[in-house]
Amino acid sequence: MGTRLNPFAAAPHLMQDFLGFSEQVAASGLEPSLLELVKIRASQINGCANCLNMHTAEARKAGETEQRIHLLAAWHEAPCYSERERAALAWTEHMTLIATQRAPEVAYAALDAQFTKEEQVKLTMAIIVINGWNRIAVGFDLYDASRGW
Predict the structure, then answer these.
(1) Residue 132 near residue 18 (C-beta atoms within 8 A)
(2) Domains of the chain in sequence order
(3) 129-134: long-range contacts, CB 8 A cutoff, minimum separation 24
(4) pTM above 0.85?
(5) 10 Å Cβ neighbour count for 14?
(6) pLDDT tens digits for 56-92?
């Protein structure tokens, strides 16, 4: 497999703007480890190897354990996630699969119980961003050659 195109070369201004927005969302004040869990979970759902590779490494840097990273695909059954993390992961799944799962009241109620209104917007924007990167990476068959794969 090879990269279909380099989106930064094809549309540099748009990609730089999206990268800048992504960095702005990442620096919005939510816990870095929580954001990495969200990015990993969305990337698992979307099957984005590039983003999984990147965000599992970033999660480790943010203090996440191997156990919590490995159990993320089964977070519903794993007891090692807080209620706040569970609310964020459920919201991530619903926002990532919105065409089929929608945003049910039970998911929003859990989100609302754990996050302020401002944090809800920040989290939702983070989910939008990672889903965008997943689609760019999967669609254009991107990979990170610097990581040796």
Answers:
(1) yes
(2) 29-147 (1.20.1290.10)
(3) 129/21, 129/22, 129/25, 129/26, 130/38, 130/39, 130/42, 130/43, 130/51, 130/55, 131/42, 131/46, 131/95, 131/96, 132/18, 133/22, 133/48, 133/51, 134/42, 134/43, 134/46, 134/48, 134/51
(4) yes
(5) 11
(6) 999 999 999 999 999 999 999 999 999 999 999 999 9
Nearest to 46 by CA among 128, 147, 144, 146: 128
Q: What is d(CA 59, CA 65) in angstroms, rounded to the nearest whole number?
A: 8
List, for residues 94-116, the tens digit of each pLDDT value.
Answer: 999 999 999 999 999 999 999 99
